[in-house]
Amino acid sequence: MRPDREKTTARTESGEQPYRAGVQVAALAGFLVASLLVAGLGGLASAANVTGWYATADKAPWSPPNGVFGPVWTILYTAMAVAAWLVWRRRTNRTRPAMAVYAIQLVLNLAWTPAFFALYPALGIAALWLGLAIILALIAAVAVTVLYFGPISRTAGLLLLPYVSWLVFAASLNWWAAAHN
After folding, report:
1. On the chain, which terminus has fewer CB atoms closer than 10 Å, C or N?
2. Which one, of 114, 140, 122, 129, lies nearest residue 46 by Cα?
3. Could you give the C-alpha distances from 92 to 86, 137, 152, in angstroms and in order?
4. What is the pLDDT of residues 89-134, one digit of tens each?
5. Contact at 8 Å (CB) between 146 and 33?
6. pLDDT tens, 33-44?
7. How many CA within 13 A on the CB side of residue 150?
8. Could you give the residue ranges of the DSSP H alpha helices within the chain?
9. pTM for the predicted model, two decimal places
10. What is the pLDDT of residues 152-168, one digit of tens each?
11. From CA 164, how far away is CA 15, in angstroms rounded?
């Protein structure tokens, strides 16, 4: 039997055959596109406001330069996509609930940027407090995602830890902005 055939006849924990290489590559691309779509939509919501109201806002003394955020988020979104793919491809009875909590955190991630940046001109400080509530819910959702991902794929759980750390840091920036503007 050819080596590539042996891989397709192996079974997962749930007894199902693993996905073929082409399906796995397509799925990874899909997870990357989904993450980058969330990133792009967030960028659209923040672009005009980063140089608008946020440029003159009272920011936390530990705020990094604006140029740091893009590269950090690019790395985090890529890690998120790879983590989701690693869990998706395992096909256990725990995969579906893990992917559901992943989807919830992705929606919360998508909601934060417009709430914090785009709603500020209309709602003022209330938008910043709304952003803080969303990012705190996001931290909780990502922590739950780590707990769901870890038993399925240790690597996937570990890939999300920098994301949780960055979110805690971002929440501190959000809190400062809400409390001091």
Report:
1. N
2. 114
3. 12, 27, 8
4. 998 999 999 999 999 999 999 999 999 999 999 999 999 999 999 9
5. no
6. 999 999 999 888
7. 9
8. 3-9, 21-50, 53-56, 66-88, 95-113, 120-123, 125-152, 154-159, 161-180
9. 0.87
10. 999 999 999 999 999 99
11. 33
Instruction: Give the list of residues 6+ apart from residue 14 with CB closer than 8 angstroms, or none.
Output: 91, 92, 93
pLDDT band of 17, cuts 50, 70, 90:
low
Identity at 90, one-letter amino acid code: R
Please check whether residue 177 is in contact with residue 60, taking contact to mean a CB–CB distance below 8 angstroms.
yes
- Cβ-count burial 57-91 (b if 16+ within 10 Å, e if not): eebeeebeeeeebeebbeebbbbbbbbbbbbbbbb
Residue 32 CA, chain-centre distance (Å), reads 11
Q: What is the C-alpha to C-alpha distance for residues 166 and 160, in angstroms, rounded to an integer?
A: 10
CATH class of domain segment(s) 20-57+70-180: mainly alpha
Query: For the chain, what is the radius of gyration of the CA atoms?
Result: 19
Q: What mean pLDDT value characterizes the chain?
A: 90
Report DSSP letters for 42-57, one per residue: HHHHHHHHHTTHHHHS
